[in-house]
Prior knowledge:
By secondary structure, the protein is mainly α. It has a single domain (2-111), classed as Up-down Bundle (Four Helix Bundle (Hemerythrin (Met), subunit A)), CATH 1.20.120. Helices cover 84% and strands 0% of the residues. The protein contains five helices and no strands. The chain has helices spanning 2-10, 15-42, 48-69, 74-82, 86-111. The N and C termini lie far apart (36 Å). The mean pLDDT is 85. Fe (ii) ion is lined by residues 33, 36, 51, 55, 92, 96-97.
Amino acid sequence: MFNQLNKAVENNELREDIYAIIDDIIAYTRKHFATEEQLMAESHYPEIEAHKDKHKKLIEEALHLKGKLDYIGEQMFTDWLNHWPFARVLAHIQYADQQVEDHISRVAYRMQ
Length: 112
Ligand SMILES: [Fe+2]
């Protein structure tokens, strides 16, 4: 999905199409975060509140920037997307979420 967004921006596709991809990414991210929050609660992850706060901020930031896209010209639109916070979402999924997965694996191992 992130690659799809990059390609769409590179190919100067219609804004409507780019917005549709952005909406898909936000929906996917929300679902991923909700599932993870449930797993954190079930496994008594100690950093749950701080982690949930990060999720909330990432979604707020994505929605805020998406709102701004309506008001900028074409060149800036492309520049803007290149600095899009989805890179941060991706980084969060790759690094912060790894800690949660490690925790869940340890809990599962202890329960065996
Ligand atoms: Fe997370």
